[in-house]
């Protein structure tokens, strides 16, 4: 049987793993794949002249990973990503100004990075309750995770980052770390949100019950 929570339904990866003899291999492989995809997305990084926060495709990979893997495996994929970065592997976005390795988590983008496991957990939690089966609810699940990323990233900027000798403050943090990215992230979200429901349709399983 495919494992489910007492109040939820199986996620896409759990369903695929439940149909295979090598279910553990599929779960581990899926976690490693999302971890590697997050690292690859970090390399598509566009620095912006008005903020220390670069434009990357990482948030969409994190949210899509949570939607497909579910809360536990989605969280695990992002914890593994952060551990790889802390260990010094080149998985964070290349930058001439942001600190490398573990120090990246203490830099201005640290709040965004540390939010990834939580965002994957939230999106995966909703996926486990059937939000991943249809396009509209997939958008809602990914949007919830995106709010987590924005909230953690902007709060970190506002509380810990500095402009000159003064703390940035929340208004400046929102202007530097949220507002410039909303339109592009929403476009990416509405495109990516159709991927997991499409797989469910191929499997003939759009009903979460």
Structure commentary:
By secondary structure, the chain is mostly helical. 63% of the residues lie in helices and 2% in strands. The protein is built from nine helices and two strands, in the order H-H-H-H-H-H-E-E-H-H-H. The protein has helices at 12-18, 23-42, 58-69, 71-86, 110-131, 135-160, 170-177, 182-192, 195-203, and strands spanning 162-163, 166-167. The relative contact order is 0.14.
Q: SSE layout and pairings?
A:
Elements: H1 12-18, H2 23-42, H3 58-69, H4 71-86, H5 110-131, H6 135-160, E1 162-163, E2 166-167, H7 170-177, H8 182-192, H9 195-203
Helix pairs in contact: 1-2, 2-3, 2-4, 3-4, 3-5, 3-6, 4-5, 5-6, 6-7, 6-8
Q: Which labels suit this protein?
A:
Arp2/3 complex 21 kDa subunit ARPC3; two-stranded antiparallel sheet; mainly alpha; 2 strands
């Amino acid at each position: 049987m495919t494992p489910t929570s007492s109040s939820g339904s199986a996620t896409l990866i759990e369903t695929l793993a439940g149909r295979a003899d090598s279910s553990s291999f599929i779960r581990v492989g899926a976690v490693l794949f999302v971890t590697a995809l997050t690292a690859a997305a970090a390399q598509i990084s566009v620095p912006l002249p008005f903020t220390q926060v670069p434009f990357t495709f990482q948030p969409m990979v994190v949210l899509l990973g949570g939607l497909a893997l579910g809360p536990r495996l989605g969280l695990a994929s992002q914890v593994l990503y952060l551990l790889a970065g802390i260990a010094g592997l080149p998985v964070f976005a290349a930058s001439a100004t942001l600190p490398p390795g573990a120090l990246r988590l203490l830099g201005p983008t640290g709040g965004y990075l540390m939010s990834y496991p939580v965002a994957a957990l939230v999106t995966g939690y909703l996926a486990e309750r059937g939000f991943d089966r249809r396009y509209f609810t997939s958008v809602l699940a990914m949007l919830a995770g995106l709010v987590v990323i924005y909230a953690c990233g902007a709060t970190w900027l506002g509380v810990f980052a500095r402009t000159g000798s003064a703390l940035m403050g929340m208004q400046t943090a929102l202007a530097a770390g949220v507002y410039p990215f909303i339109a592009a992230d929403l476009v990416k979200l509405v495109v990516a949100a159709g991927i997991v429901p499409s797989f469910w349709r191929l499997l003939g399983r759009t009903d979460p019950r």
